[in-house]
Amino acid sequence: MVARTIPAVFAVLAMTLFGVPAAAAEDPGPPLAAPEAAMDAAVTCTPDIEDAKANPVLLVHGTGSTPRESWSWNYERALPALGVPVCAVALPERALISVPVANEYLVHAIRHVHDLSGRKVSLLGHSQGGTHILWSLRFWPDLPGKVDDVVALSGDFHGTVIGNLVCAGPCTAISWQARIGSNLLTRMTRDPLPPGPSYTTVQTVFDEVVTPAPQAGRLDGAANFTVQDFCPGRLADHVTMLADDVAWQIAADALTHDGPAVASRIKARCWKPFLPNVNLLGLADAIPTVGSALGGILGLTQPKLPAEPELPDYTRP
């Protein structure tokens, strides 16, 4: 309670002494409707989160997945080896529900990890995880100041042809929102990137999910790369980007330097397929993601809707 009261006291003092509106001190943005206990339980961190000297990295999984399926066998092993504390957030219902609904868990997670570590947070997302990261920074004004780096692996920022094909008729909320030209993605990418964090995107030209590749995963104002920029013809696809060594080199460069990744610093090892400390047996943990994602996208486990869900009021000017 005391920690929450202190910012309010400073806001009142600012308004009294300098005529600054209290809301200008730190606008928390839209209130979160999800139960706080559930949002707390969705965040897990390595034990060194409070003591590490490096900014923590918060991992954000993609459609149909969980933190274990996406991260336990790759980045949750490679980042701690660099002395980087790691957290992960479990988006509700495997991120198969409407983005603004699930996104509240990420908003809460960013604040929680920032408070827990006392440091800025870096965000690394795969696939729909990149969408959630940009959505959070776009509409919650207090978050960009809490974030250092943003790295998106095969992020979906401009929609995928799959969404347009699936939504030729009624389809699920997440499929509507993943379409090229969807209201959600159009609104999310309409304005310049929120200032503060540095932005790096990493794609593969052989992405079979976020298509057309690599255009669908690029962001104006970000440092945009493909693994084929460094290793022409490299056979990385949407799933193997989670363990690809060149993608790792780009991500690690961004996370361990000021600003986004820089091509001249990246020492691509084209002969090396996987990132350090990978557990290839753990790849089996990711198998359920495929069935879960297909079931959710095709409407086997999620309701079909006749049209894209209305955008929340907070997205309107």
TrEMBL record:
<dbReference type="InterPro" id="IPR029058">
    <property type="entry name" value="AB_hydrolase_fold"/>
</dbReference>
<dbReference type="InterPro" id="IPR053228">
    <property type="entry name" value="Stereospecific_Lipase"/>
</dbReference>
<dbReference type="InterPro" id="IPR000073">
    <property type="entry name" value="AB_hydrolase_1"/>
</dbReference>
<keyword id="KW-0732">Signal</keyword>
<dbReference type="Pfam" id="PF12697">
    <property type="entry name" value="Abhydrolase_6"/>
</dbReference>
<feature type="domain" description="AB hydrolase-1">
    <location>
        <begin position="57"/>
        <end position="262"/>
    </location>
</feature>
<feature type="signal peptide">
    <location>
        <begin position="1"/>
        <end position="25"/>
    </location>
</feature>
<dbReference type="GO" id="GO:0003824">
    <property type="term" value="F:catalytic activity"/>
</dbReference>
<protein>
    <submittedName>
        <fullName>Conserved putative secreted protein</fullName>
    </submittedName>
</protein>
